[in-house]
Amino acid sequence: MSYNVRFWDIRERPGRRSRFQVRWTVNGRENSESFSTLGLAESRHAKLMTAAREGEPFDEHTGLPASELRAIKQRTTWYDLAHEYIDQRWDRTPGNTRRTLADAFATITPALVRPGSTYPEPRVLRRAL
User: Fold this and answer.
1) Rounded CA separation 101/53 (Å)
2) Which end of the chain is more exposed for a tag (fewer CB within 10 A), N or C?
3) Are 10 and 22 in contact (CB under 8 A)?
4) Per-residue pLDDT reduced to its tens digit, 79-128
5) Burial 94-121 (b: 16+ CB within 10 A, else e)
6) What's residue 62's pLDDT?
7) Strand 11-12 vs strand 20-26: parallel, antiparallel, or unpaired?
């Protein structure tokens, strides 16, 4: 985490789908996000600048303020949600319903995992559920 944050003006890149780019550095490492409209870029730029003015540290690897990193880490994953749901209902449901619930969650879970994330083969994931 670093407090050494610097911002550049919003850059317009004609001919691109996301024409407006917000750029900033955290401890010398460049970060950027692109937006299709100037209003969206200005809004993001203002949020980042507000976080810096309020004394929030920024992560050197992602370039995000500490509050945004906390929000990302607090998100519940699909796997955790499925586990919690099954745990709440397991003791009071009959055997065939348990089998149906487990089969349904095991079938849909591989489709809900983010592309590119690392997770076991669908067969292993299905067995875990």
Assistant:
1) 49
2) N
3) yes
4) 778 888 888 888 888 988 888 888 888 788 777 766 666 666 667 766 66
5) eeeeeeebeeebbeebeeebeeeeeeee
6) 87
7) antiparallel
Q: Residue 31 — pLDDT band, cuts 50, 70, 90?
A: very high
In the numeric block, the tokens 């670093």 are attached to: 2
Nearest to residue 24, comparing CAs of 66, 55, 60?
60
Residue with tokens 């409209």: 37
**pLDDT at residue number 6:** 93
d(CA 2, CA 12): 28
**Token code pair at residue 31:** 């970060």
Angle at alpha carbon of residue 105, lines to 98 and 128, rounded to 5°: 85
